[in-house]
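Onboarding guide, step 5: your first structure request.
Type a short instruction followed by the sequence, for example:

Predict the 3D structure of this protein.
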Amino acid sequence: MALPREGEGAKRPLQGGWRETGGRRSSTFTRLLRHGFTDPSAAERFLDAPGLGAVRSDPLLLDALGATADPDLALFGLVRLVEAQGDEQGRRELLDTLVTAKPLRDRLLGVLGASEALADHLARHPRDWRALAVYESTDLHPGVADFERGLADATDPESLRVAYRRCLLAIAARDVCGTTDVAEAAAELADLATATLCAALALACAAAPEDAARCRLAVIAMGKCGGHELNYVSDVDVIFVAEAAGDTDEGEALRAATRLASHMMRICSETNVEGTIWPVDANLRPEGRNGPLVRTLSSHLAYYQRWAKTWEFQALLKARPVAGDPALGEEYVATLAPLVWQAAERENFVADVQKMRRRVVENIPAGEVERELKLGPGGLRDVEFAVQMLQLVHGRGDASIRSGSTLEALKALGAGGYVGRVDAAQLDDAYRFLRSLEHRIQLYKLRRTHLVPEDDADLRRIGRSLGMRTEPITELHRAWRRHTSVVRRLHEKLFYRPLLDAVAQLAPGETRLSTEAARERLVALGYADPSGALRHLEALASGVSRKAAIQRTLLPVLLGWFADSADPDAGLLNFRKVSDALGKTPWYLRLLRDEGAAAENLARVLSAGRLAPDLLLRAPEAVALLGDRRGLEPRGRAALEQEILAAVRRADDAEQAVAAARGARRRELFRTAAGDLIGSYGTEDRPAEEDTGTLVDLVGDAISDLTAATLAGALRAVVREGWGDTLPTRFAVIGMGRFGGHEMGYGSDADVLFVHEPREGADEQEAAKAAAKVVAEMRRLLQIPSADPPLLIDADLRPEGRSGPLVRTLKSYEAYYRRWSLGWEAQALLRAEPVAGDADLGRAFIDLADPLRYPAQGLTEDAVREIRRLKARMEAERMPRGTDPTLHAKLGRGGLSDIEWTVQLLQLEHGHEVPALRTTRTRDALAAALAADLIPPQDAATLDEAWVLASRVRNAVMLVRGRAGDTFPSDGRELAAVARYLGYDPGHVGDMLDDYRRVTRRARGVMEERFYGG
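The system replies with structure tokens like these:
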């Protein structure tokens, strides 16, 4: 029958019907189905082709075809190969050998059933099937010398490609027939690559003998080729090193070496009628593609000593000389190896490792993550990265773990106690499966890919090639998911499980990590006090109790989350404190073990700074909030006030009542801080909140509502104890500043004004005394030293400031504002909002304030000039001495003060005519000004961005240090923790400060134009 022409060789026959004999399927059709053919009708037609007439009825052939990964593909390839022989003698020789020699039959059909690309090669080079007929002991495990002999006849790039594919054919045959396992096949592929690089370099030297005479050039294999674990289709990573030969000038020698190296790369990488071998990638060299292709050894050494990053030392783990001058290649490896094993001592090692761990899954298209074998979660890179990091940490003192092969290194790590033996065995099994799956995927078309296909025919072929014959697609998916799950589960445990084994004193006779090795690993993972960390681990995980057993399950994962923070030591110490406090509480460890989010949330909160852990440790039972995402959502003011007022009613006296209110406030502060931290950091299942303005608003609303509810509770408690149900005067609390603007941070005081109005018939002096006593008692009770944080009341924005009375009547406020008030006091009233006490009195105060803060005619020029003068005076006088004005979040350039005064000037000028400007919230007022065309969109966006950033900086400082501050911390760890809260990866503190200065500089420019008038 006619076959497709050369260019159509990759097209499979279409699925057809079946041949009928008297209305029934033929017996051949049934046998073909039973042997795994998916298109028996087409298979019958192929078997009837003239070329296969001599063997069509041979049962061995049908059995052998049925044993392949894809019987239809194998038969189609065989028909093409038979017809390509060209003469009858060639066809007869092939078929006779096929029927009589089982090794050839298994190998040839195995390759044809697994690789369409190699079937195409055989159709183009029909005599190459003889490469599979050899079956001697030397053929089982060929090395570089064997492959060099296989490539020896190549005289040009095209013949080298043909010879390479011929050798590849034999490797694939041994692989698909199970003669070699996946590690041996990968090693053979690396040896073939080595021989090919040697041959390509020889061709380049033969083409330019003068260049070859001027230099000594060595080719260093990197990556999978260097590690003796190459794929079927992969870039071959190399580094070139050269020295002058004889008395040749070094510059001329390097130019000659560069020409040779470039030619060698082209020979392997360029595509011609025979396709390509593989790309040669030299981008792992110093300075990457921006650096010279070839360097001297001294130049390499100088770069790695001064400039190299951690990932470059990680890459050198696999460096292996493969071609060119062998002495120079060995010298290169010997010279740089000591630097590799010192990498873990480098200053930025921990930050680099954390960045590399994040980079593993970056830049994968969302639709491909779950199909990605190499970079996806639980993929090959997870295993390779973990093994290489452990080698860098422990290889300095233990040469046995320095292998470039992932599997050999993993075995050595297990034998040395650096990885648990069971974990090492499970990871070995998973890695072998994933590499086998990768090989089978690439072998089909000899294309570089790491994606598991979606087509059922492809999945069926791959599953069958891996020995899954009953339900290959289902079995393949099940095995793949099982192995990736194992890798995901073990990936972090690899680092931390041996640390527990080193201190837990379990299972005598087991090889354990030494104390010194455990310290080394903890330092490499970012722990500043490894001895202290080991003591904490021993206290938590030692013994045979159920509690210790659960801790040993939790800690490997928790330690990883702690190490991902800016202060792992604090995270572990705080976890020990919480565990000690709740150790006998049955629900605590069960919550962490069984509620997926709780353990990670707790780890993030405990290692992110001082404030949240301090709040939690004062009442550890609040850890229960972390088990449910909704448990971290702020509660509304009404619910908070209802709870606090109920607690006040149950209390015996005012002190006990306010203590209960403060206890509720502490719990809710923890809820808010935990939700903010987790939203800022993100978790493994939920990314960080991208809209940081939303986080600022959530925190501002939550803390402002909580403060209002606490004040309402304290007011009720004081009134009830001193006067029963009714105070002789109506009393209201007016929120001011950030409190009134719903913009409080973790370190904010409660800015307020107190107003009272004597009840009808009450003595005014007695009413005033009662009101003053209420204020004094509220302030005292809310600041009594206790386990709960104090709530400081600041009434300095009242008329006459600190010199004036703490509380006034409404008429007194009215008289003062009418006769004496200054411009800044009208500006301060822009934030006024009733927060507690008599609602009607609060509204009356707002009615009094509105004409002052939203004047009917706007501001006079004198008033505007006075506001500007006061702002300039503040800038000159209130900035703390020695403070960098570009980094002060409140008073600094482009900070909160600049933005808020700019917005408030707009409110004072236009609030009467633009109702939307009548808000106490800065961002809402800015949005209203934008909507009213009072400020251009770009300027509004610039001010909003800076306001949000400065607010988050203040919140971050309080969360990290446990005390309020307006400037970035000077301590390195605290500064790094602020950076992490703001969304910067480890090692990017400088970027954070640069970005802050850039954003606030732009905001200051807008402010000077909009506020000062240019």
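Each response can be followed by summary notes, for example: The chain has a mean pLDDT of 90.
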